[in-house]
Hints:
Strand order of the largest sheet: 1-2-3
Amino acid sequence: xxxxxxxxxxxxxxxxxxxxxxxxxxxxxxxxxxxxxxxxxxxxxxxxxxxxxxxxxxxxxxxxxxxxxxxxxxxxxxxxxxxxxxxxxxxxxxxxxxxxxxxxxxxxxxxxxxxxxxxxxxxxxxxxxxxxxxxxxxxx
Length: 140
C-alpha cells in the first residue's frame, strides 16, 4: 500500500468518526507521505498543523495501526513549515520590543519567555524553537 492509498483509507475511517465540519476544516485538504516508519501529514498552514497535532494525532495513529498493523511515528507539518506559534510569538516579541524603555522591555521579555515555557508544557512548542526564539529575543 503506498502513502496515498494509506492516507485515503485513514481519511475514510476518520470521516466516519469526526464531525463533518471538523473533518472538512482540518482534514479535508491534507496529504501524507511515508518515510521509513514515519507518516508525515502535511496541512495547508501552521495553524491547521498545530490543530491536527493537538486534536487528531492520536486518532490518526490509531487508524494507521488498524490499517497496517504497524506502529508508525506520526509527524504533522504545514506546507510552509512555519508553526502558528512561531509566527505568533515572533510577532509578539517584535512588537513588544519596539518603542519601549529598558524596564518595559525586560518585563515584556519575561512575559513572553514565561508564555513560551507554558506552551512547551502543553506540548505545543518544542525546545529547539524556544531556544531560537529566546536567543533572537536576547539579541534585540
